[in-house]
Amino acid sequence: MNLDEIPEIESELVEFREIAKAGFVLAVNVRWNGPKLIHSEFPEQWRTTYEESNFFMFDPIYYWTLMETGVTRWSEIKYPNPKIVSNKAAEHGIVFGAIACKTKNGSKSFLSAARPDRELTDAELLRMDELMSKWVTIVEAAESV
């Protein structure tokens, strides 16, 4: 399934892009062999740097998705951060952000969003969680058909 197959996705993406002005990534049903669906709107240059440098190995946000569920601002994550990832991300306008993560049937799904200018508000965190839950539910339902 592709993201564009989700009903109402275009209007929801317009809304979510206002929240995630520096980009976002949605990963659905992440297992050992990869996610069922992944969609990233982070800047291409940042995605390339992140992947080629294997930054996931140093990324406290990545560790949080492995160990936790729920919604939180990146600044509230207390896993070790050698500043390698956050310093490089800031060079691409990715300064503030939040993560929403859930587990279902042994797999994780998450939505990580970023802004260059400020922390996400509580209302934005709530909306982020609502959208992620909706999108994940639709993708999961399409898988079972």
Key phrases:
5 strands; 145 residues; alpha+beta; five-stranded antiparallel β-sheet
Describe the structure.
By secondary structure, this protein is α+β, with helices and mostly antiparallel strands. It has five helices and five strands. The protein has a five-stranded antiparallel β-sheet with strand order 2-1-5-4-3, sandwiched between helices. It starts with 8 loop residues before the first helix and ends with a helix. The relative contact order is 0.21.
Count every beta strand, where a strand is a DSSP E run of 2 or more residues. 5
| Helix and strand composition category | alpha+beta
Which stretches are low in confidence, meaning pLDDT under 50 for 5 or more residues running? none
Strand proportion? 15-25%
The largest beta-sheet arranges its strands as 2-1-5-4-3
Helix content: 25-40%
What Rg is obtained from the alpha carbons, in whole angstroms?
Answer: 14 Å
Helix/strand order:
HEEHHEHEEH
For the biggest sheet, the summary is: 5 strands, antiparallel
**Average pLDDT score:** 92
Query: What shape does the CA trace take?
Result: globular
How many DSSP helices? 5
Ends distance: 11 Å
